[in-house]
C-alpha cells in the first residue's frame, strides 16, 4: 500500500526527471557561474577582482548606454511582439482556409523561416541599401524617393522589424497546428447559427488557441529582447546607435570589450526584466487563457466540440 | 509498472554513454607519438585551401608534429575570446589586436633572440612595432597592409581628368572629384560613413596630429585645429556632393563604378582583379599645409602563440615555418610579403598594384596607434566611432567641433 | 465548409500579397546566385542574370568540404530532433497532466532558463564541455537535447493542457498506468504537435551556427551552417558562393516541411477540441 502511494507521488517526478538531470548537469552550473561572474571584474585573461555590486551600480550610474539600449529594446519589443503575433495569426488563418493550392502558399510562407539568419541579413542589407538597393530602385521607378533605410536613424528600426518579420513562419506553424486541431463541427454548428467569419474567429478560434497564443507571446518577448544576430549583421547597431539593442550591447561588452563580469551583470538585469514581464503575462493569463484540461466537468460539454 | 519508463530512461542513458564514448578519446593532444598543434586563422574560402596545403606540407616534413587548421572567418574574435576565456586557446593563432589579447599570449622575444639578428632584420622594421605591447613582442609578422588611393581609370578617362599621382594633395583630389562628378554619373570620391577609428587616425597623422598624446590623453589632440581640419574637409566634400559616404567599406561602390576614387587596404586587390575593373593604385594624397608626406595606418597580421600552450617548442617550430620565405612567397595574393628578401626576389616593387603599399609603409614609420596608448581602447573606439558617424552620416552632419568635443568626454 | 466566390477571390488576393513579400527577396537571392559577383552589386540592379552561371553552384560546393558538413548536419539534426521530441514530450506530459509539489516553481525555473542570453553562459558551458572532453565533437550539440529543451517542453505543455481531462480518466478506470496513458493515448493525439516540434527543431538546429562555432574546431566536424558563415571574412565576403549554399541549405527543411504538412493536417481527422 505504501509502495503504491509512493509511486503515485513519484510518478510526475519520473516524467520530468530528464529535464531535472539536464538542468543540473548542463544549465545550472554555467548559470551559477555567470551570476558569480557578475560580481567580479572578470577580464578574459588575468586577474579576476571581486567588486560586489559594483557592476550593477556602474550600469545605472555611469553607463548611459544601458538605459538607452534598454529603451531601444523595449521599443522594438513593443512593436515587434504584437506585429509578429497578429501577422502569424493572420497567416495561420489564411493557410487553414480550404482553398485549392493553399498547400503551395503554406510552403511559400514557410520558406523565409528556413533561410539562415546570416543570409537573411545579407539579402536585406542589399535590398535596403540606400545607394544601390533594389527596394529604393523599384520605388524610384514609380517616382517615390525611398528613405535611407540603414542610414537614417528614424528608419533603421523599421528595417530591422521588416527583416525580422521574415521569420514569422515558425509562429505561424504553431498557430496553424493548433487550429488544425479544432474540429470542423464547431464551425459548422456556428454557421448554422448564422455566425460570420469574424464572429467565428473571435468566439471559437481565438479562445481555443489561447494556450499557444500565450506560448507565442512569451517566446516572442524573450526573443525580441535577445535579438542579436540580425542587428549585428544588418545594422551593426547603427546608424548613430539607433539600433544598438540591449542584447548587442551585452554581446559587445563580452566579446569586444572583454568585460565578462560586466556583461554578465547586463545579462542578469535583462533576465530580471524578462522574468518580470513573463510573470506579469502569466498572472494575467488566468483571465484570458483557456485550458480544456482545467474545465470543470459540468460545463465541459457546452464549450467543447468534437469527441 | 514503471517498466516502460525505465526502458526509455535506460535507452536515453545508454545513448548518452555511447555518444560520449565516441567523443571522449579525441581529446588527447599527443596521440600516436605526435604532438598536436591547433592553428587558428581568420581567412576564408579559397585562402583556407591554400593554407591547408601549406599546413599539410609542414605535417609531411615533421614526423613528430601534427598541425590542424581551424578557420573561423569573421567570427575569429568571438572564437578566440571564448577559447581564452575558458582556458582552451589554440596553440598558434593569427593576431592583430594585441592590446586586447596580449595577456593570453606568450612573449616571443627569447625565441627571436635565439634565431639571431639576421632573422629579425629580414622583416620590415616598422612591422615589429605593430606586433609589440609594453615592450614585448607577441607576434611574428606574417602580412600587412597600408592604405592607398584606388582610382577607376575608365571614369577618369571619361571625365578627361589626369590620373592621380604620388605627389597629389587633397586639393588635387578635390578638384578631380568635382570634375568627375560633373561630367560623369559617378561620384568623384567616397569614404566610410562609419570609419573604424583605428584606421582613421592616419589622416590625423598626415596632418600633423593624432588622437592622443603618449599617455593616452585625448584633449588637445583629437579636438585640435589640425584634427578639425581633417574632419571638416571630408564633411565638406560630402556636403558639396562630389563625394559620398558609404554604408560599407566602399569597395562595392567602387567595383560597381559608382565612385571614382576611394582609400582602402590591399584587401580589395584580388576582388578588383577578378572583376576586371580597370583601376590604378597610388599613395594617399598629402595635406598641402602639413609639410609632410601622407601617412597610413598599418593593418598588420602576426602569428602568436598561446601562453597556455603545452607544446611551445613545437608551436614555435610551426610559427617559424609559417613566417619563412617559402610561405611568404606562397601566400602572395593573400597577403603582402613582409620579408625584405622575398619582396626583392619576387620583384614586388615592380608590380604597380603592390608597390604603393610599400611606399606608404616607408612613409609611415614612427607613429603609434592610439589603440596601443589608450586603456580600454575598444570602448573609447566605440565612442569615437559614434562621433565620427555623427559628422559623416547625411542625416545628421553634425558640426565638427561639437562632435569632437563630445568625443573627448 | 463552403465559401462564396467573392470571399475566395479576396482570400487569394491576400495570400498572393503576402506570398510576394515572402517570396520576392528569396527569388531575388535565387536569381543572384546565377550572376557574377560584379553583376550582383551593379547599379541599377538587374533582375535576371545576363548569363546564367550554373557552375556557381558546383564551384561553391567544391570550395569547402561540404559533403562532410552535410553529413555532420544530418547527424546533428536527426539526433537532436529524436532526442528533443522524446524527452520534451515526457517532461511536458509531467508538467501538464499532474499536480505535484513544487510544480509551479520548477516550471518557472524551466521558463527562466530560456531567458538568460547565451553570451554569458557560453564560456562556462565551454569549460564544462572541455572538462568532459567533448570539445570538437558533435556531442555538445546533441546530448543536452536528450534532456528536453525548455522551448519545446513549454510548447508541448500548452498543447497537452488543451486536451480535456476525461481522456485519461477513462483510461485510468480501465487500469492503465501513467506511462501507458502517456504512450498509448497522448502520443497519438499529440502526433501533429510532435511533428511540428520536430519540424521546428530541425530548422533551428539546421541553421544554428553559434553552437557549432563555439564547440567545433576543425573542418572535419563542421556543419553546413558553420561552413556557410565561414564565407564571411573580416574584410571580404564571398557572396555568390554563400548565397548558393544558402539556397541548397533551404531544400532539406522545405522538403521535410512539405512531407510533414500531410501529418499535421491529418490531425483534423482526430480533432480533439
UniProtKB/TrEMBL annotation, chain A:
It is found in: Cell membrane. Residues 70-281 form the ABC transmembrane type-1 domain. Its main location: membrane. Signal peptide: none annotated. Pfam families: BPD_transp_1. The chain crosses the membrane at residues 12-40, 76-95, 107-127, 155-176, 201-222, 228-248, 260-282. Keywords: Cell membrane, Membrane, Transmembrane, Transmembrane helix, Transport. It is a multi-pass membrane protein. It comes from Sellimonas catena. It comes from the Bacteria. GO terms for biological process: transmembrane transport. The keyword Transport applies. Belongs to the binding-protein-dependent transport system permease family. One of its GO terms (cellular component) is plasma membrane. This is Sugar ABC transporter permease.
TrEMBL record, chain B:
Residues 1-20 form the signal peptide. Its main location: other. It is found in: Cell envelope. The keyword Ribosomal protein does not apply. Gene3D superfamilies: Periplasmic binding protein-like II. Pfam families: SBP_bac_1. InterPro entries: Bact_solute-bd_prot1, SBP. Keywords: Signal, Transport. Belongs to the bacterial solute-binding protein 1 family. This is Sugar ABC transporter substrate-binding protein.
From TrEMBL, chain C:
It is a multi-pass membrane protein. Its main location: membrane. The keyword Iron-sulfur does not apply. Keywords: Cell membrane, Membrane, Transmembrane, Transmembrane helix, Transport. InterPro entries: MetI-like, MetI-like_sf. The keyword Transmembrane applies. Residues 70-260 form the ABC transmembrane type-1 domain. It comes from the Bacteria. The chain crosses the membrane at residues 9-31, 69-93, 105-127, 133-155, 181-203, 238-260. SUPFAM superfamilies: MetI-like (SSF161098). It is found in: Cell membrane. Belongs to the binding-protein-dependent transport system permease family. This is Carbohydrate ABC transporter permease. The lineage of its organism: Bacteria, Bacillati, Bacillota, Clostridia, Eubacteriales.
Amino acid at each position: 500500500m505504501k509502495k503504491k502511494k509512493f509511486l503515485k507521488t513519484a510518478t510526475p517526478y519520473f516524467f520530468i526527471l530528464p529535464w531535472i538531470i539536464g538542468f543540473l548537469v548542463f544549465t545550472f552550473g554555467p548559470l551559477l557561474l555567470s551570476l558569480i561572474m557578475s560580481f567580479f571584474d572578470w577580464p578574459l585573461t588575468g586577474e579576476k577582482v571581486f567588486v560586489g555590486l559594483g557592476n550593477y551600480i556602474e550600469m545605472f550610474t555611469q553607463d548611459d548606454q544601458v538605459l538607452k539600449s534598454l529603451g531601444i529594446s523595449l521599443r522594438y519589443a513593443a512593436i515587434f511582439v504584437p506585429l509578429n503575433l497578429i501577422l502569424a495569426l493572420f497567416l495561420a488563418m489564411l493557410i487553414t482556409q480550404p482553398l485549392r493550392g493553399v498547400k503551395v502558399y503554406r510552403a511559400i510562407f514557410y520558406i523565409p523561416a528556413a533561410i539562415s539568419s546570416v543570409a537573411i541579413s545579407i539579402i536585406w542589407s542589399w535590398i535596403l541599401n540606400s545607394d544601390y538597393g533594389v527596394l529604393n530602385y523599384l520605388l524610384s521607378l514609380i517616382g517615390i524617393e525611398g528613405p535611407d533605410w540603414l542610414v537614417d536613424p528614424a528608419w533603421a528600426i523599421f528595417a530591422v522589424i521588416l527583416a525580422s518579420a521574415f521569420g514569422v513562419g515558425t509562429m505561424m506553424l504553431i498557430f496553424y497546428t493548433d487550429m488544425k486541431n479544432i474540429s470542423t463541427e464547431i464551425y459548422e454548428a456556428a454557421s448554422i447559427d448564422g455566425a460570420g467569419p469574424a464572429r467565428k474567429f473571435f468566439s471559437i478560434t481565438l479562445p481555443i488557441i489561447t494556450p499557444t497564443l500565450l506560448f507565442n507571446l512569451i517566446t516572442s518577448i524573450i526573443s525580441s529582447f535577445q535579438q542579436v544576430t540580425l542587428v549585428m549583421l544588418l545594422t551593426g547597431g547603427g546608424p548613430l546607435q539607433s539600433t544598438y539593442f540591449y542584447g548587442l550591447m551585452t554581446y559587445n561588452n563580452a566579446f569586444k570589450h572583454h568585460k565578462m563580469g560586466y556583461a554578465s551583470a547586463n545579462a542578469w538585469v535583462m533576465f530580471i526584466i524578462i522574468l518580470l514581464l513573463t510573470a506579469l503575462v502569466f498572472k494575467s493569463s488566468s483571465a484570458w487563457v483557456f485550458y480544456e484540461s482545467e474545465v470543470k466537468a459540468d460545463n465541459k460539454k457546452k464549450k467543447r466540440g468534437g469527441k | 509498472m514503471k517498466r516502460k519508463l525505465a526502458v526509455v530512461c535506460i535507452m536515453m542513458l545508454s545513448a548518452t554513454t555511447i555518444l560520449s564514448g565516441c567523443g571522449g578519446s579525441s581529446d588527447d593532444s599527443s596521440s600516436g607519438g605526435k604532438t598536436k598543434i591547433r592553428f587558428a586563422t581568420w581567412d576564408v574560402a579559397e585562402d583556407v585551401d591554400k593554407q591547408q596545403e601549406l599546413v599539410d606540407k609542414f605535417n609531411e616534413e615533421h614526423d613528430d608534429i601534427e598541425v590542424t587548421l581551424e578557420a573561423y572567418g569573421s567570427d575569429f574574435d568571438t572564437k578566440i575570446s571564448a577559447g581564452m576565456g575558458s582556458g582552451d586557446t589554440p596553440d598558434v593563432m593569427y593576431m592583430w589586436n594585441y592590446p586586447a589579447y596580449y595577456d593570453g599570449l606568450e612573449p616571443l622575444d627569447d625565441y627571436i633572440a635565439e634565431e639571431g639578428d639576421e632573422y629579425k632584420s629580414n622583416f620590415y622594421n616598422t612591422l615589429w612595432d605593430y606586433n609589440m605591447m609594453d615592450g614585448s613582442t607577441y607576434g611574428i609578422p606574417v602580412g600587412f597592409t597600408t592604405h592607398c588611393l584606388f582610382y577607376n581609370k575608365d571614369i577618369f578617362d571619361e571625365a578627361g581628368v589626369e590620373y592621380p599621382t604620388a605627389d597629389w594633395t587633397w586639393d588635387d583630389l578635390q578638384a578631380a572629384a568635382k570634375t568627375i562628378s560633373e561630367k560623369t554619373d559617378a561620384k568623384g570620391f567616397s569614404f566610410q560613413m562609419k570609419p573604424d577609428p583605428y584606421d582613421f587616425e592616419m589622416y590625423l597623422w598626415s596632418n600633423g596630429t593624432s588622437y592622443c598624446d603618449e599617455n593616452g590623453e585625448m584633449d588637445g589632440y583629437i579636438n585640435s585645429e589640425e584634427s578639425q581640419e581633417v574632419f571638416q574637409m571630408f564633411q565638406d566634400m560630402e556636403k558639396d556632393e562630389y563625394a559620398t559616404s558609404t554604408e560599407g567599406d566602399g569597395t562595392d561602390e567602387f567595383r560597381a563604378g559608382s565612385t571614382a576614387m576611394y582609400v582602402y587596404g590591399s584587401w580589395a586587390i584580388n576582388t578588383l582583379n577578378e572583376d576586371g575593373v580597370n583601376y590604378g593604385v597610388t599613395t594617399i594624397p598629402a595635406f598641402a599645409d602639413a609639410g609632410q608626406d601622407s601617412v597610413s595606418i598599418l593593418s598588420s597580421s602576426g602569428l602568436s602563440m598561446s601562453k597556455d600552450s603545452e607544446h611551445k617548442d613545437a608551436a614555435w617550430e610551426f610559427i617559424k615555418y609559417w613566417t619563412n620565405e617559402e610561405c611568404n612567397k606562397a601566400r602572395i595574393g593573400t597577403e603582402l610579403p613582409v620579408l625584405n628578401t622575398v619582396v626583392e626576389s619576387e620583384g614586388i616593387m615592380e608590380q604597380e598594384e603592390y608597390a604603393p603599399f610599400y611606399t606608404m609603409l616607408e612613409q609611415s614609420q614612427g607613429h603609434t596607434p592610439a589603440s596601443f596608448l589608450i586603456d580600454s581602447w575598444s570602448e573609447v573606439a566605440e565612442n569615437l566611432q559614434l562621433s565620427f558617424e555623427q559628422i559623416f552620416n547625411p542625416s545628421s552632419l553634425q558640426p565638427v567641433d561639437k562632435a569632437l568635443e563630445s568625443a573627448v568626454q | 465548409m463552403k465559401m462564396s466566390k467573392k470571399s475566395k477571390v479576396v482570400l487569394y488576393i491576400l495570400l498572393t500579397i503576402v506570398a510576394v513579400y515572402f517570396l520576392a527577396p528569396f527569388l531575388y537571392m535565387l536569381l543572384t546566385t546565377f550572376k557574377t559577383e560584379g553583376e550582383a552589386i551593379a547599379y541599377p540592379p538587374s533582375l535576371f542574370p545576363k548569363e546564367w552561371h550554373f557552375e556557381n553552384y558546383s564551384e561553391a560546393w567544391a570550395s569547402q568540404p561540404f559533403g562532410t558538413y552535410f553529413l555532420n548536419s544530418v547527424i546533428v539534426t536527426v539526433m537532436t530532433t529524436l532526442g528533443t521530441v522524446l524527452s520534451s514530450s515526457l517532461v511536458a506530459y509531467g508538467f501538464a497532466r499532474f499536480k505535484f509539489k513544487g510544480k509551479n516553481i520548477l516550471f518557472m525555473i524551466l521558463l527562466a532558463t530560456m531567458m538568460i542570453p547565451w553570451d554569458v553562459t557560453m564560456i562556462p558551458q565551454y569549460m564544462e564541455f572541455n572538462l568532459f572532453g567533448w570539445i570538437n565533437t558533435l556531442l555538445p550539440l546533441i546530448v543536452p537535447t536528450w534532456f528536453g529543451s525548455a522551448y519545446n517542453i513549454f510548447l508541448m505543455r500548452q498543447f497537452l493542457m488543451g486536451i480535456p481531462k476525461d481522456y485519461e480518466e477513462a483510461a485510468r478506470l480501465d487500469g492503465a498506468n501513467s506511462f501507458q496513458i502517456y504512450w498509448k493515448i497522448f502520443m497519438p493525439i499529440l502526433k501533429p504537435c510532435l511533428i511540428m516540434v520536430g519540424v521546428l527543431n530541425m530548422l533551428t538546429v539546421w541553421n544554428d551556427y553559434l553552437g557549432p562555432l563555439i564547440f567545433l574546431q576543425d573542418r572535419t566536424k563542421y556543419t553546413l551552417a558553420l561552413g556557410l558563415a565561414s564565407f564571411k571574412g573580416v574584410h571580404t565576403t564571398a557572396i555568390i558562393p554563400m548565397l548558393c549554399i544558402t539556397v541548397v541549405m533551404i531544400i532539406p527543411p522545405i522538403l521535410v516541411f512539405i512531407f510533414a504538412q500531410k501529418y499535421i493536417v491529418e490531425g483534423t481527422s482526430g480533432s480533439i477540441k
